[in-house]
């Protein structure tokens, strides 16, 4: 358990450093507006969600250490981790779609036509979600599957305890 905690805190420190490294350029880009503001905003949002997943893992591990099994609150946390994992895939895809819009703005000298922009945004979002984010999607679905399994195991555990 000590090694897991050390790895956890090292990863959380890297996530915090990553967030701080992007914070000031992001605030400047958001102030200027345009599609680059969307790229930076969703980049910061993705890092914040990763930090939320890490905090949820810490909370889950602490609850498991205290009780020796997963409780209903721990199962809610586990499901939240699964949904946040799926959210990472969506947020990263939106970030990539804004990157495509930014490149279109450069191509069209600052202002891309709305019909081209919308088509490019949707196409980039779907392509990125399906081609580049399968691990985040699979991670989220796997955690949700484990949460469902643990929910059923908790029901069986309570039924067995009621017989005693």
Task: Describe the protein's architecture and organization.
It is a single chain. This protein has 164 residues and is mainly alpha-helical. It has one domain. 90% of the residues lie in helices and 0% in strands. It has five helices and no strands. The protein has helices at residues 2-32, 35-67, 72-107, 114-131, 134-163. Helix 1 (2-32) runs antiparallel to helix 2 (35-67) and helix 3 (72-107) packs antiparallel against helix 5. It is elongated, with a radius of gyration of 20 Å. The two termini are 32 Å apart. The model has no long low-confidence stretch (mean pLDDT 87).
Distance between the termini: 32 Å
Instruction: Please outline the major beta sheet.
Output: none
Class computed from helices, strands and strand pairing:
mainly alpha
Q: Mean pLDDT, as a whole number? A: 87
**What shape does the CA trace take?**
elongated
The total number of structural domains is 1
The number of helical runs is 5
